[in-house]
């Protein structure tokens, strides 16, 4: 796993040059935006259970056959496995967002995920749809656009980062897109 600093060192080392110019500017920006990054990860981690359960519920609402006898979320142990996998994926996305690098997500979560799901008979389209719903939920939490009208009695007001979080939400969305692409 590489963080922004390690990546800058590896890049400079591969060029046999000192760190400078654009690399230093990128590191300065990474540090300046550090509190926003931490707040974004906190927004995801603090709402992980709700994000995952809402994503799985949304997936099931779109395909009710998943919870009927013979469906992939029936019986309860399969539903529990689905929720567990959603939590694991979300955790690795939050690690990637914290470090600013997708290598931990790729190496420890996505490497072989599709093949494993195929071997277990997990419907890839449904799994990808659940990840897409998680993406929308997490981006709303990062941007602070979650509202009581959308969340109902489960609404939790989070401290939102000051300033524009569009770059962080786009970065988080790109990590979810990596998961969806790995399942496709």
Automatic annotation (TrEMBL):
It is found in: Cellular thylakoid membrane. It is a peripheral membrane protein. It holds the Pfam family Phycobilisome. The modification N4-methylasparagine is found at residue 72. Gene3D superfamilies: Phycocyanins. The keyword tRNA processing does not apply. Keywords: Antenna complex, Bile pigment, Chromophore, Electron transport, Membrane, Photosynthesis, Phycobilisome, Thylakoid, Transport. (2R,3E)-phycocyanobilin 2 binds at residues 72, 77, 82-88. Signal peptide: none annotated. InterPro entries: Globin-like_sf, Phycobilisome_asu/bsu, Phycobilisome_asu/bsu_sf. One of its GO terms (cellular component) is plasma membrane-derived thylakoid membrane. Its main location: membrane. GO terms for biological process: photosynthesis. (2R,3E)-phycocyanobilin 1 binds at residues 35, 39. Belongs to the phycobiliprotein family. This is C-phycoerythrin class 1 subunit beta. The lineage of its organism: Bacteria, Bacillati, Cyanobacteriota, Cyanophyceae, Oscillatoriophycideae. The gene is cpeB.
């Amino acid at each position: 796993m590489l963080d922004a600093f390690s990546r800058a060192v590896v890049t400079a080392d591969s060029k046999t040059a000192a760190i400078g110019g654009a690399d230093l500017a990128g590191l300065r920006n990474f540090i300046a935006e550090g509190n926003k990054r931490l707040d974004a990860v906190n927004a995801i981690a603090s709402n992980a259970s709700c994000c995952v359960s809402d994503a799985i519920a949304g997936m099931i609402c779109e395909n009710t056959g998943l919870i009927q006898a013979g469906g992939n979320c029936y019986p309860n142990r399969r539903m529990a496995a689905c929720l567990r996998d959603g939590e694991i994926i979300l955790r690795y996305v939050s690690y990637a967002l914290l470090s600013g690098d997708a290598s931990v997500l790729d190496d420890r979560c996505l490497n072989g995920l599709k093949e494993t799901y195929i071997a277990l008979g997990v419907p890839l389209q449904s799994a990808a749809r659940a990840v897409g719903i998680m993406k929308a939920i997490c981006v709303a939490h990062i941007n602070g656009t979650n509202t009581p009208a959308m969340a109902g009695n489960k609404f939790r007001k989070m401290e939102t980062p000051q300033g524009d979080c569009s770059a962080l939400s786009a970065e988080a969305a790109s990590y979810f897109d990596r998961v969806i692409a790995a399942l496709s």
